[in-house]
Design a protein that fits this description.
The complex is a heterodimer of chains A (336) and B (189).
Chain A lengths: L7 H6 L6 H20 L3 E2 L5 E2 L12 E3 L9 E4 L4 H9 L5 E8 L11 E10 L3 H16 L6 E7 H9 L8 H10 L13 H13 L7 E9 L8 E2 L5 E9 L2 E8 L4 H17 L9 H10 L3 E7 H8 L17
Parallel strand pairs in A: 1-5, 7-8
Antiparallel strand pairs in A: 2-4, 3-4, 5-6, 6-12, 8-10, 9-10, 10-11, 11-12
Helix pairs in contact in A: 3-9, 6-7, 8-9
Chain B lengths: L2 E3 L8 E4 L2 E11 L7 E8 L5 E7 L3 E3 L3 E11 L3 E5 L6 E5 H4 L11 E7 L2 E6 L3 E9 L13 E5 L4 E4 L8 E5 L4 E6 L2
Antiparallel strand pairs in B: 1-6, 2-3, 3-4, 4-5, 7-8, 7-10, 8-9, 10-11, 12-13, 12-15, 13-14, 15-16
The chains are: A alpha+beta (336), B mainly beta (189).
Chain lengths: 336, 189
């Protein structure tokens, strides 16, 4: 006899979306990650999900929640989109190399490869330059996919080189008109409302539609040296043109990881936060409280380091041979 | 003007693009970790049936199309228009050759068809999946001759031509799958 009050929908949806064998694989991968870092003397840490400051990046939308009790300056707390800020405060406090497996939250992101709540593995290595961290990412991912996905040797391409290879243009110098013409030549109709004066969204459009699906075919593809306008929290190297010391990892056309040679300059960090908030205002988005404690930590001194965040659910999806994130999540958004 | 945000995109949603009605076939949310999010959609033009890819900036809105599917009974053809009737309200409307297209050959009087209406006007007419029709002409097949394998052509009362087995003769009634144009069986009247 069925209990009264339980809806038919709930009766269909109480079960996990991922098979139990996938959840077992997830547990094994997590154990391997912890073993990998234990062997290298990288300490596991745990930082808060709720913060009184938020990420200012106009392309990231933090969930906000209202705290009712005593103990904070204001009632609004933000769910972190990555544990980056508090981890950097730990680094400045002298933690040494650290890693964290965190649930992070990004509002508005749902689809085949997105769930608004997902698992991120983030780690920081003191004294590493991006190349050395890229090598460690390759080692870890290869280990996690061993016996599951055959991989050829990784490839390493600069952002400029991938655009040159797949679209025949230089992303550092191309004008909006040239990028728009390139989209047309690729039979890609640009969406309405693309800015006529800012090449960055055009580069995002071309990269996500015309290049990403071709990256990481049977091998790890690392893309590095991004345009300075896409630096986020990476250092900018004063080359000609200047490039952001940022890298991304792709496998099977899917973005798996994003890493930086971390910006340590507090004044520059403050300028970037403020610029982000001006861009938010231009898009009618509310400005967000800047993380003053992070800026204070940078002022005190963040050791030279490189850091990277890797999407564990996407990696698990590839390891399990699935094509949808929801197939590897116990309870994705629709069932949460 | 009703609109939909890209957050509401799902297959089957009807929207207006460049003044034409479209239905969303597939929608993918595409977003780099750092950077602009897009919705990459496959959309079908409800006038032409063509499927094209369109990309939208996530969060943007598009105009909603007032498109509905209704069941109507086919009445007759006056040489220029095909007339249909709503069986509840007895309201009638007509569709021209451009709208009915190839499906005209499956329209038999009184058949209940699926019409797609945009702002109350027909965009397309779908016949029932199965229709029964009388064969008005087919070659008398030789019984036992299986050498031609695929059967023989038969012309139906509406002018449609389908391949039928050799044993089926002029004057017989057959059942046809309109989606494939394939003969299904003989029907005893």
């Amino acid at each position: 006899m069925s209990a009264p009050g339980v809806s038919g929908l709930a009766r269909r949806e109480w079960r996990p979306a991922a098979g139990l064998e996938v959840l077992r694989l997830r547990a094994r991968l997590l154990a391997m990650v912890r073993g990998f870092f234990a062997e290298r003397g990288v300490m596991e840490v745990d930082t808060p999900i709720l913060s009184s400051a938020a990420v200012t990046d106009p392309h990231l939308d933090s969930f906000a929640t209202v705290y009712a009790g005593p103990g904070t300056g204001g009632p609004v707390l933000y769910l972190h989109t990555s544990p980056e800020f508090p981890m950097k405060r730990l680094l400045a406090a002298g933690s040494g190399c650290i890693y964290q497996i965190a649930k992070v939250f990004r509002n508005g992101e749902a689809g085949r490869l997105h769930n608004p709540e997902f698992s991120l593995l983030e780690w920081y290595r003191l004294g590493f330059d991006p190349l050395r961290l890229i090598a460690e990412v390759a080692e870890l991912v290869t280990l996690l996919l061993r016996d599951r996905i055959p991989l050829q040797a990784p490839e390493y391409l600069s952002y400029g080189a991938v655009f040159e290879r797949y679209l025949g243009l230089d992303p550092h110098t191309a004008t909006v008109a040239e990028l728009a013409a390139c989209a047309t030549a690729q039979a890609l109709r640009a969406p309405p409302g693309m800015p006529p004066d800012d090449p960055t969204p055009w580069l995002d459009l071309l990269l996500s539609h015309c290049i990403e699906p071709r990256l990481g075919q049977g091998r790890l593809s690392f893309i590095y040296d991004y345009p300075a306008a896409q630096a986020a929290l990476a250092r900018i190297r004063p080359d000609r043109p200047p490039v952001a010391e940022r890298f991304e990892l792709y496998l099977d056309g899917i973005e798996l990881a994003n890493g930086f040679h971390e910006l340590t300059d507090a004044a520059e960090q403050r300028r970037r936060f403020e610029r982000d908030n001006r861009r938010r205002a231009a898009r009618q988005l509310p400005p967000l409280p800047v993380d003053e404690r992070l800026l204070a930590a940078l002022e005190f001194g963040l050791p030279d380091c490189a850091g990277v965040a890797l999407g564990l659910d996407r990696l698990l999806m590839i390891a399990a041979g699935k094509t949808c994130l929801r197939d590897v999540l116990s309870f994705p958004l629709e069932r949460a | 003007m009703a609109t939909y945000s890209t957050n509401e995109f799902k297959s089957g949603l009807k929207i207006i693009l460049d003044g034409d009605p479209y239905t969303i076939v597939e929608n993918e949310f595409v977003k780099p970790g750092k950077g602009q999010a897009f919705n990459r959609a496959k959309v079908r033009n409800l006038k032409t049936g063509r499927v094209v890819e369109r990309t939208f900036k996530s969060g943007d809105t598009v105009e909603a199309a007032d498109v509905v599917e209704v069941e109507m009974q086919y009445l007759y053809n006056d040489g220029e228009h095909w007339y249909f009737m709503d069986q509840q309200t007895f309201e009638q409307l007509s569709a021209d050759a451009g709208t009915v297209g190839d499906n005209a050959k499956w329209l038999k009087e009184q058949a209940v068809c699926q019409l797609t209406l945009w702002n109350g006007l027909p965009l397309s007419v779908s016949p029932p999946n199965f229709v029964t029709m009388t064969i008005v002409e087919t070659d008398p097949g030789v019984r036992g001759d299986t050498s031609s394998g695929g059967g023989k052509p038969a012309t139906l009362e509406t002018g449609a031509v389908v391949r039928v087995p050799l044993f089926v003769q002029t004057g017989e009634v057959i059942k046809v799958d309109t989606r494939t144009g394939d003969y299904v069986s003989r029907v005893k009247e």
